[in-house]
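Following up on my earlier thread - several people asked me to post the actual chain instead of describing it. Fair enough. Here it is, all 149 residues.
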Amino acid sequence: MTAIAPEIDNMLLSITEEAHVRAPIAATFAALLEEMGPSNEGRPGTPMPMTLEPWPGGRWFRDLGDGNGHLWGHVQAIKRPTLLEITGPLMMSFAVSSNLQYRLKEANGVTSITLTHTALGLFPEGYREQLSQGWPLMFDRIRRRVEKA
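Reply from S.P.:
Thanks for posting it. Predicted structure:
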């Protein structure tokens, strides 16, 4: 088997994260949509409201007003309350294509969320390492939102 050339390997991204929330799956899925949409944060404590249209083909974007903004992706698949899949550049403003999947499962009153983020692109030096830092913060916000309810 031939190894992937180092140049190609530098163009790949693969992140998998898992979180457990002590709440029903429907409430956890609703909190996920809220945190990806109007309650989204950039850096901790810095609001960065987004619009997420939760249907196939729906957009996920940041509206800056006056016709300005950033398209992060489109809903590729949604199966409430077990799957949300988005494809697009996400927060990256360079040549890249991402697939973002959230898969939810409930057992014994605990919902597990598995995030898989894969991408292919021309990543600037050091950028791939930074991409894994935001997902755990969003999981914490989901957990706080739904477990306090």
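Residues 6-147 form a domain with the Alpha-D-Glucose-1,6-Bisphosphate; Chain A, domain 4 fold (CATH 3.30.530.20). That should answer part of your original question.
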